[in-house]
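chain below, 316 aa
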Amino acid sequence: MVCELRDVTYVYPGGASGRVPGGASGQVHGGASEKESQKSGAFSGKEPPESSEAASRPGHPALSGITLQVREGEWLALLGSNGSGKSTLAKHLNALLTPTQGDCTVFGMSTKDPRNIFSIRSAVSMVFQNPENQIVGTVVEEDAAFGPENQGLPSSEIELRVERALRAAGLFEKRKKPTYTLSGGEKQRLAVAGALAMDTPCLVLDEPTAMLDPQGRHELLEILRSLHEGGKTIVSITHRLEEIPYCDRAVVLVEGRIAWEGAVPSLFTQSESFRKWGLDAPPLVSLWKELRAETPLSLPEVPTLSGMTDALCRLQ
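prediction:
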């Protein structure tokens, strides 16, 4: 088991301040900059908590009674509208936040025990929504090396990891380029490469495609698909149903509670609930649903563009 949450409730201290109990907003331990803290896994005020009414009202739980397991080797999608609690939940997975009530363990280690923090963050890496908040190096390969350097690895191992990560992210040819010359999609892939270079068994991505165009989104999802096929545990936080067809399991959050949990194919049969969950059905999903209801066509279990194209081409 990678991670297990048992009856977890979380209340932001003072509302949506972004503060961690015991620390000042916007500050991190050890004198590191805010960007450096995000790269290495420590929480700062740069990445805000949920922008929901639940997070902004002091004393109102952003998460309530969450019981969830993240299984080794799976690709889990955490779905929900803005303010549903999904980003708050994600930050529990590598101890950026710890439960107000309940328990969260990562590879059997309690996130509430300060002695476990380094080990937990060495096992679970995170990619945030805005890559600008994670890029700390002026050169692509230097930025990708930041995480392994903080792990105290020898130079030869760091070089090997950086090369492998940049190749996986499709950025190896730009390894000597200044980071400011990268496009938005390339910067997001660099953030992924930095997480991959840490070589953690679990990767958590919080709305990683939010700033990408359709092509950049497709490229990033293909990278994640390849990583999953290689055995890495992935947790994707998103509100886009078109990004989850290759996930193994989905969890829908509404106002800080789990509204639905199950296999991805089963989720797409629950389309009548999408509106109350705050999810929009993409046109492809709507077409898939209508064709299933009104035609005898043999359609894919999950509505992907390639699967739907193959099914419709067979009409000829």
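The two ends are 47 Å apart (CA to CA). The chain has one domain: 3-281.
thats it, cya
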